Amino acid sequence: MAGTNSERELLTGGPAIILVEPQLGENIGMVARAMANFGLSELRLVNPRDGWPSEKARSAASKADHVIDGVRVFNTLEDAIADLNFVYATTARERYGFKPVRSPVVAADTLRAKFTGGENTGILFGRERWGLTNEEVALADEIVTFPVNPAFASLNIAQAVLLMSYEWMKSGMEDHGATPFQPIEQRPATKEELIGFFHHIEDALDARGYFRPEGKKPKMIDNLRAIFSRRAFSAQEISVMRGVVNCFDRYSRTNPRGSTADEEAISDDSRE
Amino acid sequence: MAGTNSERELLTGGPAIILVEPQLGENIGMVARAMANFGLSELRLVNPRDGWPSEKARSAASKADHVIDGVRVFNTLEDAIADLNFVYATTARERYGFKPVRSPVVAADTLRAKFTGGENTGILFGRERWGLTNEEVALADEIVTFPVNPAFASLNIAQAVLLMSYEWMKSGMEDHGATPFQPIEQRPATKEELIGFFHHIEDALDARGYFRPEGKKPKMIDNLRAIFSRRAFSAQEISVMRGVVNCFDRYSRTNPRGSTADEEAISDDSRE
């Protein structure tokens, strides 16, 4: 899979990701990569255990250098969120409290609305082993939690950041069904093209005695046409199938194309 | 964050995840963990480079043992998908072809509908370095791709599996705003409780000469009430705020609670 590509648009901005006392440089790097994947760029660290900068983090970031280079380190969570207007705390564990609890979809939509309105926002993620303290959660405006398997709720920190970054990206899309690339356009066949194919194959089969007994011919034709009417073929697909019928019709195993005196080519309109 | 918890429901089932020639055991383990997080359980490997079983995979799976124990290994992709009815291929790179290309949301909804209809489904993920070959993609029914940052499109395999697993979980939810736990219910304050608080704080301030000059008193009261009307307080919050006003009203820095002959407690209705 491709890495950074300077010809393509590099998305930045969005909420700050704030890691509270992260322990492993590798995790910080994987967080940076996950952010970059989905267009976030501002990473803040509160008291990273192994200090900063971290070569392990840079290596694990897989070239998300713009995120790593922009990291800011703070001594306290209060300092790290001082300039923000609205902050989410992520948690996997149920917290008994009064703060609103949001799904990632709702949280991302809320962050997008506030970002668009000019507010500075952030999302807090806790330590690898035990997350955020209640006092840290208390500094946030709202809680966001993930719809996990009840018996297997443990998400690692980079995965939690990935999901929020992904929902952030989606919150900016008008259509969640949109994809970055599309299949090659194919013109759907007209009914004339489809019926031309029916006649072609039916004629070739009829000449071989396929429709026996004669009384069953209408039903056999019905069945055959039903198969080829089940989905809408493209004009090109019809053309390919006519080429196949042509090939069966004109040549045999003992008398293949090119082996006979009759060097008539497969007709142009049915070749692809 | 919590690991497996046998008292809670363990979600299983859903589409098979098929890794084609995965290289690192750690990645296979992280894939298993991501699947378990969002209720998938069937993992198939095509020619894992370092063989199977893998202690590195089990360790990285962080106790997703039910996924690791159920792994099935195949020599070819054809064998791995033989019993399936419908298969997605994941790709980060644009593929020039005719296959439908879907977003994760649409793909997960499609998989959910087919799963509910009794079909066997699967999702193919390629090698860490270079994904799936065109021939492998050709074996799938449709393509799924992620809405990534155009200049930083490289997702690692466990992250790609995590996103599809997460969307699978969401496709089974009626409401994408639902959360596994909710805040403690608080009864909203009545207007009588709110107005009682207004009178309480205004009386205490008036006794201290806060409303000066007298002519500005109505405007000052307006401003004060506007602050406390901006959002709906709960009955409990009103009670806490009355306790605060009471404390300011009855005691001073030089004469704090408990230091005076007047040992009258803060009235019950305003304590929390």
From TrEMBL, chains A, B:
Enzyme class (EC, first level): transferase
Pfam families named among the record's database cross-references: SpoU_methylase
GO molecular function: RNA binding; tRNA (cytidine(32)/uridine(32)-2'-O)-methyltransferase activity
Keywords on record: Cytoplasm, Methyltransferase, S-adenosyl-L-methionine, Transferase, tRNA processing
Location in the cell: Cytoplasm
Listed EC numbers: 2.1.1.200
Subunit structure: Homodimer.
Protein's UniProt name: tRNA (cytidine/uridine-2'-O-)-methyltransferase TrmJ
Species of provenance: Ferirhizobium litorale
Chief location: cytoplasm
Annotated GO CC locations: cytosol
Superkingdom: Bacteria
Function: Catalyzes the formation of 2'O-methylated cytidine (Cm32) or 2'O-methylated uridine (Um32) at position 32 in tRNA.
PANTHER family: TRNA/RRNA METHYLTRANSFERASE (PTHR42786), TRNA_RRNA METHYLTRANSFERASE SPOU TYPE DOMAIN-CONTAINING PROTEIN (PTHR42786:SF7)
Catalytic activity entry: cytidine(32) in tRNA + S-adenosyl-L-methionine = 2'-O-methylcytidine(32) in tRNA + S-adenosyl-L-homocysteine + H(+); uridine(32) in tRNA + S-adenosyl-L-methionine = 2'-O-methyluridine(32) in tRNA + S-adenosyl-L-homocysteine + H(+)
CDD domains in the record: SpoU-like_TrmJ
An individual GO BP term: tRNA nucleoside ribose methylation
InterPro entries, alphabetized: Alpha/beta_knot_MTases, RNA_MeTrfase_TrmJ/LasT, SpoU_MeTrfase, tRNA_m1G_MTases_N
Residues of the tRNA/rRNA methyltransferase SpoU type domain: 16-166
Sequence similarity: Belongs to the class IV-like SAM-binding methyltransferase superfamily. RNA methyltransferase TrmH family.
